[in-house]
Design a protein that fits this description.
Helix content: 25-40%
InterPro entries: ACCD_DCysDesulf, TrpB-like_PALP, TrpB-like_PALP_sf
Distance between the termini: 33 Å
Strand content: 15-25%
CATH topology of the largest domain: Rossmann fold
Shape: globular
Bound molecules: pyridoxal-5'-phosphate
GO molecular function: D-cysteine desulfhydrase activity
Keywords: Pyridoxal phosphate
Modified residues (N6-(pyridoxal phosphate)lysine): 45
Order of helices and strands: EHEHEHEHEHHEHEHEHEHHEH
Largest sheet: 6 strands, mixed
Active site: 72 (nucleophile)
Length: 307
């Protein structure tokens, strides 16, 4: 992947985690810090946007339009990546937009993104041809990036997350939202690897959703894989006190910053599986830190805590 969409992109950093539990179980746990690729366009969102913006630019469109919630990492990343590429960006935000803007939306606006609220009823139909037509009437021609950014170009990008020695690790773990990132990893991982996705949403529907993505994009995984659905903590963007204290503990003891929507739930789930002897002794586990740390400010504001 050439790094044309952002010039300040850094090579991936790997962090070995040394904690008594990991050592006791004879495991090697290495975190690939995709959150450190760039201060603003963190983690998997960089990979998901890369080819989308390339196509938008090549097709001569001057604008991208996308959707997201008020604390969305995708909105945040799109705003910055679009502005870095001289593209205008429109963000359609679910529900009301409260002023003053929260830190996520404030950053997006400071990057030049135009923000428009959309009622929850309308938002549910945002992908209908009717809504799309209305948006085109209102904003003119644009390159559409779906909510969460998952499409063919996103998967082409996330396929490039695993490289080099990543492909020699026994297990690879990743958080799941829409499943786009996981699908890209499945397209790349080797036959002797096992991928574990941790869903941040409540319910088992994500398993068939990932199946659908694989069919739609013609992906036939060589590796084995599993989706863990027990670590949602009440549902998307919900959390519980034990998740918050876990995140605080990991930050202090392992110097690893996590956030409560995705990476915190994944690492909590990983440690639970380690405790339950899910992994054979000697296993090498690669943990993908998919970013999202910009969202911490909003959590701290709303919950009055420090993460
Ligand atoms: C968006 C996001 C995910 C989920 O990615 P999907 O491709 O939608 O599954 C995971 N982690 C972080 C930090 C994210 O921002």
């Amino acid at each position: 992947m050439n790094k044309f969409i952002l010039t300040a992109i850094k090579p991936a950093i790997y962090q070995h985690i040394h904690l008594p539990l990991i050592n006791d179980k004879g495991l090697e746990v290495i975190v690939k810090r995709l959150d450190l690729l760039h201060t603003e366009v963190q983690g998997n969102k960089f990979y998901k946007l890369h080819y989308n913006l390339e196509v938008a630019k090549k097709s001569g469109l001057s604008k991208v339009l996308t959707f997201g919630g008020a604390y969305s990492n995708h909105i945040h990343a799109t705003a910055l990546a679009a502005s870095a590429n001289g593209l205008k960006a429109i963000g359609i935000i679910r529900g009301e937009m409260v002023t003053p803007l929260n830190p996520t939306l404030e950053d997006a606006r400071n990057q030049g993104m135009e923000l428009y609220p959309m009622s929850r009823e309308e938002y549910r139909q945002k992908d209908s041809s009717f809504q799309l037509k209305r948006l085109k009437e209102r904003f003119g021609d644009f390159y559409l990036i779906p909510e969460g950014g998952t499409n063919a170009m996103a998967i082409k990008g996330t396929k490039e997350i695993l490289e080099g020695k990543d492909l020699t690790m026994d297990f690879v773990t990743c958080p799941i939202g829409t499943g786009g990132t996981f699908a890209g990893l499945l397209a790349r991982a080797e036959s002797d690897q096992q991928l574990i996705g941790f869903s941040s949403l409540k319910g088992n529907f994500i398993v068939s959703e990932v199946d659908q993505l694989l069919r739609k994009y013609g992906i036939q995984p060589k590796c084995s894989y599993e989706i863990q659905t027990a670590y949602h903590f009440g549902g998307y963007a919900k959390q519980k006190p034990n998740l918050i204290s876990f995140i605080q503990e990991i930050k202090t003891k392992a110097n690893l910053p996590l956030e409560p929507v995705y990476t915190g739930k994944m690492v909590f789930g990983l440690f639970d599986l380690i405790e339950k002897d899910y992994f054979p002794r000697g296993s090498k586990i690669l943990v993908l830190h998919t970013g999202g740390l910009q969202g911490i400010r909003g959590f701290e504001q709303r919950l009055g805590i420090k993460l």
